[in-house]
Design brief:
transmembrane helix; mainly alpha; membrane; single chain; 3 domains; transmembrane; 170 residues
Length: 170
């Protein structure tokens, strides 16, 4: 196993997960049909074009922005601690900020067409409702994510102080 991990660079379960992912993607393409991935009439409406665009947009634009935001968050939390001698923090706040921010970003991505009222006429015709509440509900959901995370952080911090434990996390 060590030889394999040294040669491959990761645990064998990682290779198994990657192979499973490729098999699942291959199955999806087989079910949809390769001919349906390309729109002959309007090329930019093709699934393949949108998939490649999403990969390029994520890897070349969004991922560096994630990394920059994460570094800024880490630096900001370190700056709040000041230049005092480093002492172990009982509980790191980093993941208690990362998780609700990620959840908020994903729900924004999911509900963005409703928030910006794209397709408002079709939505109104189909449901009899307007898309007005989408933004308010997303903001409420985001506030809830951060509030639940703050309560979880406060609880974990109180428990760690009570027990006298030091928990590292990042």
């Amino acid at each position: 196993m060590r030889r394999f991990a040294r040669f491959y660079g990761a645990n064998p379960l990682h290779l198994l997960a990657v192979l499973f992912t490729f098999a699942l993607a291959g199955y999806a393409v087989a079910v949809v049909g390769p001919q349906n991935l390309w729109n002959q009439d309007v090329w930019w409406k093709s699934i393949a074009v949108w998939f490649l665009g999403a990969v390029i947009a994520h890897d070349l634009v969004l991922f560096p922005l994630y990394a920059l935001a994460d570094r800024s968050l880490t630096s900001g939390l370190n700056a709040l601690r000041g230049r005092r001698p480093p002492r172990p923090q009982p509980v790191s706040a980093l993941n208690y900020i990362r998780v609700p921010a990620l959840a908020s970003g994903l729900t924004l991505l999911l509900f963005l067409p409703g928030i910006i009222e794209q397709g408002a006429d079709a939505y109104l015709a189909a449901t009899g409702l307007t898309q007005g509440p989408f933004l308010d509900r997303w903001l409420l959901l985001t506030a809830t994510f951060f509030a639940v995370s703050a309560v979880a952080y406060a609880t974990r911090l109180a428990l760690s102080r009570k027990d006298g434990d030091t928990v590292s996390g990042s």
